[in-house]
């Protein structure tokens, strides 16, 4: 009976004693799992961020391209309108001054003729 | 002394009112035609004119900058019905304001009339009404210039210096 008790005590003592380093290994393993879980969560979050960033970048790029295209078209239109306005203004000024000059030239011609007539009259009157 | 100041004040007010009236009449005339189909309207800003005036017209002659042009408006149409209406309205505007006819040139191709609005020797506005066979053009030059300078610029621009 004593032997049986002794054996039982030994067995219980043996069961209570964990193998050396098991606890650390278990903690390490649990930490690893926790870390892996965190990493997994971070990965999912990061993936979402990448997706959202990618979509946002694509939208921005598309808007940018369209806006640049519209801006370029507007610039071209403005440049064309400016060039047209310049040509119109130059033509208008040319028309204005050529007509003005036409009148002045006629006036000069008349003045020259009057001067000639005056000279002839003076000549005739002197002789 | 007091009377002199009052006279000057009255003159200034009258000049201001008259100036406003002239501008208003001209603006109304332009406003009527600027949105009309078949009418070409070009208004050149002072900035644009500065760029254009900086271009030399002739190496020996005067450039446009000498004329101190501050604005240019062009009205042009080829439509017969609008041409007639435009001429009538233009005559009304000229009658209502203090423009003076200075030159009329008529030949086989066109009938051109020049009007000016001046203060002393300085011309503030010069208008050309050109009627051609199928077109009527009105050009208004605003600024501060004399007749002498205008004649010289006209000669240098048309190469008859």
How would you portray this structure in words?
The complex is a heterodimer of chains A (127) and B (161). Chain A has 127 residues and is mainly α. Chain A has a domain at 26-98. Chain A is 94% helix and 0% strand. The longest helix of chain A is centred in the middle third of the chain and has 105 residues, at 22-126. The mean pLDDT of chain A is 87. With 161 residues, chain B is α+β, with helices and mostly antiparallel strands. In chain B, strands 1-2-6-5-4-3 form a six-stranded antiparallel beta sheet, sandwiched between helices. The longest helix of chain B has 33 residues, at 2-34. Chain A binds chain B through residues 85-86, 88-90, 92-106, and chain B through 40, 42, 44, 48-49, 52, 64, 72, 74, 103-105, 107, 110, 112, 114, 128, 130, 137, 139, 141, 150-151, 153-155, 157-158, 160.
Q: Low-confidence spans of chain B: pLDDT under 50, at least 5 residues? A: none
Helix fraction of chain B, binned, reads 40-55%
Order of helices and strands of chain A: HH
The helix content of chain A, as a percent range, equals: over 70%
- Average pLDDT of chain A, to the nearest integer? 87
Shape of chain A: rod-shaped
Helix/strand class of chain B: alpha+beta
Q: Any low-confidence stretches of chain A, pLDDT <50, length ≥5?
A: none
Kindly summarize this structure in a few lines:
The complex is a heterodimer of chains A (127) and B (161). With 127 residues, chain A is mainly α.
Task: Detail the topology: elements first, then pairings.
The complex is a heterodimer of chains A (about 130) and B (about 160).
Chain A: H1 2-16, H2 22-126
Chain B: H1 2-34, E1 39-44, H2 46-53, E2 69-77, H3 80-96, E3 100-106, E4 110-119, E5 122-132, E6 136-145, H4 147-157
Antiparallel strand pairs in B: 1-2, 2-6, 3-4, 4-5, 5-6
Keywords:
heterodimer, A: 127 residues, mainly alpha, 2 helices, 94% helix, B: 161 residues, alpha+beta, 6-stranded antiparallel β-sheet, 4 helices, 6 strands, 43% helix
């Amino acid at each position: 009976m004593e032997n049986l008790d002794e054996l039982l005590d030994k067995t219980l003592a043996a069961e209570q004693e964990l193998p050396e380093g098991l606890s650390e290994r278990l903690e390490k393993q649990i930490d690893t799992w926790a870390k892996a879980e965190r990493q997994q969560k971070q990965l999912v979050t990061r993936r979402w961020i990448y997706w959202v960033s990618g979509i946002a970048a694509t939208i921005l790029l598309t808007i940018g391209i369209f806006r640049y295209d519209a801006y370029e078209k507007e610039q071209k239109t403005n440049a064309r309108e400016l060039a047209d306005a310049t040509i119109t203004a130059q033509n208008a000024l040319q028309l204005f001054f050529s007509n003005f000059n036409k009148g002045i030239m006629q006036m000069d011609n008349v003045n020259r003729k009057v001067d000639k007539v005056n000279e002839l009259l003076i000549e005739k009157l002197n002789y | 002394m007091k009377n002199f100041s009052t006279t000057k004040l009255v003159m200034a007010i009258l000049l201001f009112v008259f100036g406003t009236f002239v501008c208003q009449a001209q603006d109304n005339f332009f406003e009527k035609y600027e949105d009309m189909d078949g009418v070409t309207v070009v208004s050149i800003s002072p900035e644009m004119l500065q760029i254009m005036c900086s271009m030399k017209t002739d190496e020996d002659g005067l450039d446009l900058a000498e004329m101190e042009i501050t604005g240019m408006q062009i009205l042009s149409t080829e439509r017969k019905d609008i041409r007639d209406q435009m001429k009538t309205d233009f005559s009304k505007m000229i009658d209502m304001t203090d423009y003076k006819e200075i030159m009329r040139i008529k030949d086989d191709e066109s009938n051109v009339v020049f009007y000016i609005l001046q203060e002393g020797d300085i011309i503030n506005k010069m208008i050309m009404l050109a009627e051609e066979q199928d077109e009527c053009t009105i050009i208004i030059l605003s600024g501060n210039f004399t007749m002498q300078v205008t004649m010289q610029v006209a000669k240098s621009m048309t190469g008859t210096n």
